[in-house]
Amino acid sequence: METHVGQFVCRKAKAGALAKLRNMRLQNGDKNVDEIPMELEVMEYPIVDDTLKHESQTTRAKTCNLVPRLRVTPLKHKNLKIQNEPNVVNPFSNRANGQQLTETKFIYSSHVTEDHSFPIFDIKFHQNLADKNIFATVGRNRVTIYECTNKGSNKNMVPLLAYEDPEPNETFYSCDWSENSAGRPVLAAGGKMGIIRIFEPPKEKCVREFGAHGCPLNHVQFHPKNPNLLLSASKDYSLRLWNIETGYLIVIFGGDEGHRAEVLGADIDRTGSRIVSCGMDHSLKVWSLTDAKIQDAIQLSYRYKRNSNKPFPTVLQNFPVFSTRDVHSNYVDCAKWFGELVFSKSCDNDVICWKAGNVSQSWAEIESKICEESSIIKRLDVSDCDVWFIRFSFDPMMKTLALGNEVGKIFIFDVSVADPLSLMQGTVLSHPSCDSTIRQTAFSRDGSTLICVCDDATIWRWDINEKRNDKKEE
């Protein structure tokens, strides 16, 4: 039987092999479950608080600084079969509600299926690794790390590590990559239990956890300039900014003028100065990170003594610098910065590019006065995308937008046009075997690989067609 100690069980796949991801949701004492063929030696260290043994949300939050020490040996079981089907993609068979479609530059490479059979809600590539394409997925109570391999014409996805929460009711909804002060990769994940997990894959363990929210977490994202700052968005109507190195809660965004319903998504702009958030209240809000109180609190979070008699002075930010409910008339489940513009998606079969204030106003002008006006720049029409919690992504160069839908198709839009008012070209990627809801998409560091994750626990890989004769580039 598999042994659970502390918070997580870690598995490591044998190098060069695609380890089959068996069902790890084992209950202690369940005699009907076959023994998992792996060797796992666990060293249990003294537990200061006995309540760690009870995995309720309350007690887990109180013991969030206790992490297990695991020693893991390689898996020794059969390889998982990779599905490489004939490339029968027909990107021209479906048009996006009148959007002009052009020849696709992506072709199908492979797909894999995780054995838990539950939806995979998020995928993120590690964008700071120059020589490897590493990505993480979250679904059910599992976090899995993969590597994209390229051996000739075989472009596969090899699982490297898998973490499972021993709490069977946990479901992870979001993840993101960063680096710690030593330069090692770290991965954050959060979900239904409201707990943020911080993993160090090189150490093969969960190194920190926060009782972040009293409700489920819908989104986590690291600050683009400060790798220790982590933003979380929750069903409790708030966003929170954390210092993962010290464990302090720096800012709570919410309250008087905050969201009035579940916060579904957020994005920090590339300068690290503003946050855009969206939620079930149909609203989009912009929060400033340059406020003097917030900047002082960020600096204090590195110096504050943990043995102080007073708790860390968390900043309560009740007022966004901009708020609107005029862009969408339904749940807004994804919003991302595009320079000073914002792309946001609702459950109305469209993605809207818009700007706070009028087109000519700068952010300095908008923040200096109360402004609720918004200017819609462009509307991108899609189809079969009227359920919530389907999110889009940009490639790292901010030239391409990818969004999945309910029937397994991916809409690709070229957003690199010089004039945002001009038509943005669109294509549709489809595969006969991909017919489940696509929850999230992600691009590799160089934009050459596109991955999407689905409700049927499948992960699909698409790569740039190197043989394509792109006449536009000639």
From TrEMBL:
Record key words, sorted: Repeat, Transcription, Transcription regulation, WD repeat
SUPFAM superfamilies in the cross-refs: WD40 repeat-like (SSF50978)
PROSITE patterns assigned: WD_REPEATS_1, WD_REPEATS_2, WD_REPEATS_REGION
WD repeat spans: 210-252, 256-297
InterPro entries named among the record's database cross-references: PcG_WD-repeat (IPR051243), WD40/YVTN_repeat-like_dom_sf (IPR015943), WD40_repeat_CS (IPR019775), WD40_repeat_dom_sf (IPR036322), WD40_rpt (IPR001680)
Pfam families per the UniProt record, alphabetical: WD40
Gene3D superfamilies per UniProt: YVTN repeat-like/Quinoprotein amine dehydrogenase (2.130.10.10)
Family: Belongs to the WD repeat ESC family.
Protein name in UniProt: Polycomb protein eed-B
Native organism: Folsomia candida
